[in-house]
C-alpha cells in the first residue's frame, strides 16, 4: 500500500517555520524567500486539509494540529539526517572503532582480543572506553558494548552476556590466619567495592550476615582496578561474572562461597542497523557473540 505523504520538498520549510515561529527567520535559515516559505507551508496545509499556522499581522503561531505535526516531522527529519550521515560518513578502510566501558575492556575484551586479530589481520581495532553512551555518527563509533537494559533508541542491541554477582578473592585468602569458609568470615577481611548497583549490603543480607558494615573497605570507580586489588589479595570483591570469568579460569581468583545474585542489567552489543553492511562490523559482532557462547559453554561444563 503506498504511503500517504505530504509534499516532501516542503517539509524542511515547514520544520524551520515551526522552530522559529517566523517565516522570515525560516527563509534566512534555508536561504529562501519569505514567499517560498509561505507557499511551502500553504502547500502542505492544502494537501492535509488542516491549518497548521495561525497567521497574524507580524507573527505566526502553531495551531494545536500544527504543533503536534511539527514534533513528528522534526523527529522524522532528524532520523533521515542521522541515517544519511551514517551512510555518508567517511570511515578509514580496515579500521574498526569500538566503544565500551573501562571494566569490560580491561577484564573481558582485551584479554581475548588477540583471537580476533589472528582471524582478521586486515582489521585494526581501536577501542575507546567511557561510561557514557556513544553517538555512533558524531563520535565515529562502529559498534559498542554496553551494560544496561538493552533499550538504546535508534540502535540494534543484541544480548551478549547475562551477569551473576558473587564474591571473589585471591586463592591465598582461602588459607592463612582467617580462612574464608563461610560468609561470616568476611568480618576478618577487607570488602572491595566497584560501584556496581548490587552492593555488599544486598549480598550480605541474602547471606544472612548482619554484623558486618557493608560500607567498609576500599572503593574503586573502575572495575578493572577493583579486580586487580582482589587478584593481589587486598580483599574480597563482589565480582560480576562477565568481568571475572577469565581470572577465575586462570586461577587468579576463586569463589569462596556459592551464593550468587542475578543482575537485572546485562551486557549488549549495540550498533546501527546499517552498520552490518560493513564487513568489519559484522565480523566483530559475530566474534563477540561467539566468544560469549564459549563462555557459556565453559560455565555449563
Please, could you describe this protein's structure?
The chain is α/β, with parallel strands linked by helices and about 300 residues long. The protein has three domains: about 10-90, Orthogonal Bundle (Arc Repressor Mutant, subunit A), CATH 1.10.10; about 95-160 and about 265-300, Periplasmic binding protein-like II (D-Maltodextrin-Binding Protein, domain 2, 3-Layer(aba) Sandwich), CATH 3.40.190; about 165-260, D-Maltodextrin-Binding Protein, domain 2, CATH 3.40.190. It is built from nine helices and twelve strands. The protein has helices at about 10-20, 25-30, 35-50, 65-90, 100-120, 200-205, 225-230, 240-250, 280-300, and strands spanning about 55, 60, 95-100, 125-130, 145-150, 155-160, 165-170, 190-195, 220, 235-240, 260, 265-270. The strands form three sheets. A five-stranded mixed β-sheet has the order 4-3-5-12-6, covered by helices on one side. Helix 1 packs across helix 2, helix 1 (about 10-20) packs across helix 3 (about 35-50) and helix 5 (about 100-120) crosses helix 7 (about 225-230). It is elongated, with a radius of gyration of 27 Å.
Question: Key features?
Answer:
301 residues; alpha/beta; Arc Repressor Mutant, subunit A; D-Maltodextrin-Binding Protein, domain 2; 3 domains; five-stranded mixed sheet; 9 helices; 42% helix; 18% strand; DNA-binding; transcription; DNA-binding transcription factor activity; sequence-specific DNA binding; Transcriptional regulator
Strand order of the largest sheet: 4-3-5-12-6
CATH superfamily of the largest domain: Periplasmic binding protein-like II
Number of domains: 3
End-to-end separation: 52 Å
Please state roughly what percent of the residues sit in beta strands, choosing from under 5%, 5-15%, 15-25%, 25-35%, 35-45% or over 45%: 15-25%
Shape: elongated
